[in-house]
Design a protein that fits this description.
D-Maltodextrin-Binding Protein, domain 2, 2 domains, 16 helices, about 40% helix, globular, disordered N terminus
């Protein structure tokens, strides 16, 4: 069982008062902005972790949801009085994780399923999201000294999508065979009977990861012809599926704002291949030991981020073409976590 830090574990009397107030306001119930409830300023709390000032480098992967989460983190730390360095949009999963382990960044949001299957190479993670989080947090701390803060309820799991018109009788795009593909296990039959219709657009990571296409094909027992698979930038997969000229199916993230915008239909994962992917802010154990008030601060924020919220936030970037920093700023203000 992972050792949980208690609110009493803080270096100074002044910081203790901050944490007591914070831990009594789970999910923001205690009210007040971050500036009122937390203080990370070095001059008030003293030098910690060998730093002259309280300074954090925040990273993220290079897609919209990750950049929004990174900007939320920067705003929260800034509101608490810390100096921040924006290193969001750093690269793919492996690049950002490597930067964290190397100490080039101090924190970034990672997904529990990615932690289990990619970083920790756990072949059969628990189906229960809470059990998955506990296992990942325990193992990553013991193996690599990486802390996982309490995760958000949002589940950014992978899914396979199809445009809805193929299942609508009377639509020009209606196709009886495609309409019959409602579950992932149906893909095997489609590939056998009509391989020319089993076309799939996938993002670069999904095309290679064990929790992506290779694992999916092995789990469901199908093999797509190489000519049927098109590797595209993640953000363009949605439009390709909606257009239906290049591919009938595509790999998507369940929290993407493109799903409701394009009314894409998700195939049922009837054999439960895809793991839960709850976002959690990750950092080194040393960082959290030096700044334990980071946990209640980001537990509060994470608790507000459900799947619908992340879909709405990502839609503002993907569909409305707003900057991630502006979307994050508005959300933090709406939540009364920072002052307008």
């Amino acid at each position: 069982m992972r050792r949980r830090r208690q609110c009493s574990k803080i270096a100074t009397v002044a910081a203790l008062a901050v944490l007591v107030a914070a831990c009594g306001s789970e999910g923001g119930a205690g009210g007040g902005s971050i500036a009122e409830r937390y203080d990370l300023r070095g001059e008030q709390l003293g030098e910690r972790g060998g730093r002259d000032t309280t300074r954090f480098v925040v990273g993220s992967k290079d897609f919209e949801e990750q950049e929004i989460l990174g900007q939320i983190t920067l705003l929260a730390l800034d509101a608490a009085g810390a100096e921040v360095v924006d290193s969001t949009g750093l690269g793919d999963t492996e690049a950002v994780r490597a930067a964290l382990v190397a100490g080039e960044i101090d924190m970034y949001w990672e997904y529990t399923g990615t932690g289990a299957l990619i970083h920790l190479a756990q072949g059969d993670p628990p189906d229960d999201p809470q059990a998955l989080f506990r296992d990942v947090a325990d193992l990553d701390l013991r193996r690599n000294g990486v802390e996982w803060l309490p995760p958000a309820p949002a589940n950014n799991t992978y899914a396979i999508a199809v445009r809805p018109e193929v299942g609508e009788q009377g639509s020009e795009a209606y196709d009886e065979e495609l309409a019959g593909v409602t579950r992932l296990s149906d893909l095997r039959r489609l590939i056998q009977e009509s391989p020319d219709k089993a076309t799939l657009c996938v993002g670069p990571e999904f095309s290679e990861r064990a929790d992506g296409l290779p694992g999916l094909a092995e789990h469901y027992g199908f093999e797509l012809p190489a000519a049927n698979v098109f590797v595209l930038p993640d953000a363009t997969v949605y439009g390709a599926v909606d257009g239906g000229t290049k591919c009938n199916f595509g790999s998507v993230f369940e929290t993407s704002g493109f799903i409701p915008e394009l009314e894409l239909r998700l195939l049922e994962d009837d054999e439960t291949f895809f793991s839960a992917y709850n976002p959690s802010l990750t950092m080194s154990a040393e960082t959290l030991r030096s700044y334990p008030e980071l946990e209640p601060l980001f537990e509060d924020i994470a608790g507000r981020l459900d799947t619908q919220t992340l879909r709405e936030l990502s839609a503002q970037v993907l569909v409305d073409k707003r900057a991630p920093e502006d979307v994050a700023q508005d959300w933090m203000e709406d939540q009364e976590l920072i002052d307008q």
